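Problem statement: downstream parser choked on a complex file, so we are re-checking the raw output for the ribulose-5-phosphate run. The parser issue turned out to be on our end (a line-ending mismatch), but while we're here, posting the original submission so the record is complete.
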Amino acid sequence: MNQDDLKKIVGIEAVKYIQDGMTVGLGTGSTVKYLVEALGQRIKDEHLTIIGVPTSNRTARRAEQLGITVKDIDEVDHIDLTIDGADQIDEHYQGIKGGGIAHLREKIVAINSRKNIWIVDESKLTKQLGSFPLPVEVIPYGSQQLFKKFKKRGYNPKFRMDGNRFILTHSKNYIIDLGLGKMGDPHKLAKNLKDMTGVVEHGLFLDLVNTIIVGHEDGPEIIQ
Ligand code: 5RP
């Protein structure tokens, strides 16, 4: 089995948590892709009434193609459940997200959800966060100054680029990835980053997840 097979296993497992009538936050990425496909199939087979709240244009497009009703977060009264991927999860179930530059929308949807499920292949589990670069969404204006501050603090910053162009997020901001190596105290770092003017949102998702579904060779593991 390869990594993609494990992603498929958890996508298919997670769709079982969706019930008729639910409003569901739909995350972003190559793992969520399998969830969205499985949800489209269930809606078709079981005639379910589901509203999807996508966290990226990519997910919205795919959901619509599959016949899932899609609404913007500000058009729904509440979100019952959000299912999303993650880039890294530590032993305390704290996570890094934003590898796919969607963490701002993902976090807004997650904090407005009654329940959050993460779906990951086993390679995403780690003892300590930090070996995956931490994405930070920043306002373009003054971003070089912010970059210098990150550098001074030893965060090893790197702008996310496509050749010589800055990659833009949904909100037309830049991403600076922080090469932290090992992250001592994620809560302290999250607060430090939030306190910096020009930072829109970082990719630390702390104390947010209720259930994690991990893909292994021998099937999905459910961590509650
Ligand atoms: C996007 C994310 C994704 O959930 C994360 O990058 C995991 O992606 P994948 O399922 O493709 O490994 O945070 O911003």
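For whoever reads this later: The chain has a mean pLDDT of 97.
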